[in-house]
Amino acid sequence: MATSTAVIRSLSPRPYRVHLHVDGTTRPSSRGGTLEREDPADARDVVTVTDEGTVEEMREAIAAARRVFDGDPAVWVDDPARRRRVLLGAAARIRANAVPLAEMVSFEVGMPMRQAHPHVAAAADVFEFYAGYVGKAYGETMQLPSGSLVSLLREPVGVVGMIVPWNFPLTQAARKLAPALAVGCTAVVKPSPYTCASTFELVRYLTESGAPAGVVNFVPGAAPEIGGELAAHPDVDKLSFTGSTRVGVIVQQAAAESMKRVSLELGGKNPFLLFSDADLEAAANGLVYGMFRNSGQACGATTRLLVHESIHEPFVERVLAKVRTLHIGSPRDASTALGPVVSAAQEKVILGYLERARADGLHILCGGDKIDGPDHRHGYFIAPTIVDQVPPDAELAQHEVFGPVLSVLPFRDEDEAIGIANGTSYGLTAAIWTGDAARALRVSRRLRAGTIWHNDTYQQNVEGIWGGFKKSGTGRELGPHGIADMTEVKELYTDGTGLVMKPHYAQVLD
Known about the structure:
Layout: E1 16-18, E2 20-22, E3 25-27, E4 34-39, E5 42-51, H1 55-70, H2 80-96, H3 98-109, H4 113-131, E6 140-143, E7 149-156, E8 159-163, H5 169-183, E9 186-190, H6 196-208, E10 216-218, H7 224-232, E11 238-242, H8 245-256, E12 261-265, E13 271-274, H9 280-292, E14 304-308, H10 312-323, H11 344-359, E15 363-366, E16 385-388, H12 395-398, E17 405-411, H13 414-421, E18 426-427, E19 429-433, H14 437-446, E20 451-454, E21 469-470, E22 473-474, H15 479-484, E23 487-494
Parallel strand pairs: 1-5, 8-9, 8-11, 9-10, 11-12, 13-14, 13-19, 14-17, 16-17, 19-20
Antiparallel strand pairs: 2-3, 4-5, 6-7, 7-23, 12-22, 15-16, 18-21
């Protein structure tokens, strides 16, 4: 869509400076402390300096969101035209500032620019998609034989707490904010400490586009108490969390006391099922993309290659050839395919998995170590890694590594492939590669996963859904289900009989 130059605003120079945004006011924290975020490609450089909020400031943000939602509905809840303008305005600002936004994501996450650009565009797509839903929440009505009516209405759930991850900060925040604001909710956003600047930009765009004070609030902070307060506070009606399964369990426990609605988008250990009749060149391209995008730091990454034993060796050789051509380096280099992982802590976790894999005698075909060349030694670079003949019950086949590590598991037949695919505690995504359409449908029905791709990998369209089975979470984002996740259903019963003494009253009255 065309945008006006009026929405173009240069981002602050690095280090990016991030403050709180509470009740319409951008301000420093009362505590005075700051959180410094290093460039994961060169840890000597600080890219973001963020004011750390306090538990009290989180409470202020929740109170502001509560006041707006419970106050005059004409200000926000009952003003669809304004909500539509806000969402479209945010999308326009994202598109107008796409280049500096992509650079910001690249600096904070370590995401290569060739991936950061489509990431930014996808966030704008989400706001535009949900702007189209504003004011279109049709209900359902049924007339009973008595003439009475049962009407089902969808209403905004209320104040929504949003805990946003670091790996895809713009789209992950957009997928929560856009449907919530579209239906008239108010929001309190808590970003990842790694990507405060990226998330803060969306809050600024929404404010500049006309969101009233208190509708969108932003409280950053690394202390667990900040997110804990958002999860537990009784004035928060719903919590939307994206992150690890371990933290998701803690979040759900914190939310349980107030019985708030919770949606959790958690981890995955996603299978790539390759049958012998598939197009192997297309499959190899799809696997490398689905596995190594964002250095494997993606909950939907296809981290387990389940390959039919008849094509195991030639296919793995084909994949190895492609992986060896990938440029690993500065995320700002246009040719870079893999950048660093996000942090020293994440680097340590990934290398720990690889050390244990070696100790267990697993066969590492390529990678397996930190890259220590002159262009890499100051960053968190791990070589893309392929581990062959991984037993289905091995740690590498069961745990989410969240890094550039692919496990290869050969199978004999369809039943064994399905058993291996379903044999983890996760169920987020799966990819099926076969030239047999009937097999693709048959296997899809038996897989326990929220999203299944046929002859493609890691498509995440706003028109679809995102969410998983088992320990991959609860609830669904994107598409119309994203709207449903931010609403409550209310029944209105209207008597159509006009009777003073209705038949069911006779259960009590003579």
